[in-house]
Amino acid sequence: MRDLTVTQTAVVGETRHTDAVRLLSIAAVERETGLSKDTLRVWERRYGFPTPGRDPFGERVYPLAQVERLRVVKRLLDAGWRPGRLLKMSPQEVEALADRGQATAAALAGGSSAPQSEPLDPFLDLVRAHDAAGLHRELGRMLSRLGAFRFVTDLVAPLNVAVGEAWMRGRLEIFEEHAYTEEVQVVMRQAIAQIPVPQTAARPTVLLSTFPGEPHGLALLMVEALFRLEGCACVSLGVQTPLLDIVRACQAHQADIVALGFSGILGAQQVLEGLGDLRVRLPAAVELWAGGSASVLSRRPVPGVHVVQDLRSVAGEVRRWREAGESDRLA
């Protein structure tokens, strides 16, 4: 990684800097932000941001202030915003939008109204200290104390928001966020394994997955736990399952509900077209549910797709499904 600290005059756009400035190469910025080199070059040409300087070899180099702004932009892109709008905003406007976005994410996760029984800072401190064993121990303690439902809704959901906020602000590195996610997934799988399996065949049978290009599996585990707590039979395909395989799995497992998660990474059109295509391919009797922080789900509903607003509404939605089935049987 070329990471330069320069004391000579550096030119960034029309501004000259003579103080010591730490600059990152385009490869380093790609790793730091998750934005590809091609994306950075296209934005520079199309929107006039970022505005890199050049190192002695003529390669692009980026000041840390621009890298921090790119971090925030990337987080907002993941939440469903488009680059053409974000890159025309001032840095202050982007920051304000990110603050509002985090409040929305907390609400969607069920964290805004949850009676948070424990502070989140001790968990963030363990992440920053790279204490994986300590984080695992504390998460396990909270699982035992709160039970699976409150562990998901009152701790993990708001903690995910806090970790995302810390990453977006540059207070956590990407590797630290990834390490946190992996550790929580381990504990979530333990929580799921501890939920009693019904003695008799349970309905609905729920098939869980995400579309190709949607790699986030933690939310999938969280919602699986909530379904299992309601006595549902769950079949998880993990993340990034092709649509045709979702249809085949639905048929093979005789699923009543196909539940998909969307974090905002996929473009709005990908989400809408994918849901529409899947709805046509699935049997009419199978309900298609979608949830997550992708804003397009609430902005542009897809006919035949049921949007689950937040984690706390899962129980009510399962009751709705069962009551509808009972009405059909009585009819």
pLDDT averaged over residues: 83
**CATH class division of the largest domain:** Alpha Beta
Please compute the radius of gyration using only Cα atoms.
22 Å
Q: Give the CATH superfamily of the largest domain.
A: Cobalamin-binding domain
**Looking at the chains present, what oligomeric state does this protein adopt?**
single chain
Give the H and E element order. Answer: EEEEHHEEHHHHHHEHEHEHEHEH
Counting DSSP H or I runs of 4 or more residues, the number of helices is: 13
Order of neighbouring strands in the sheet with most strands: 8-7-9-10-11
Q: How much beta, percentage-wise?
A: 5-15%
Helix content: 40-55%
Rounded to the nearest angstrom, the distance between the terminal CA atoms is 68 Å
Number of domains: 3
Identify low-pLDDT runs: 1-20, 103-116
Largest sheet: 5 strands, parallel
Q: CATH topology of the largest domain, which one?
A: Rossmann fold
State the shape: globular
Number of β-strand runs: 11
The structure class reads alpha/beta
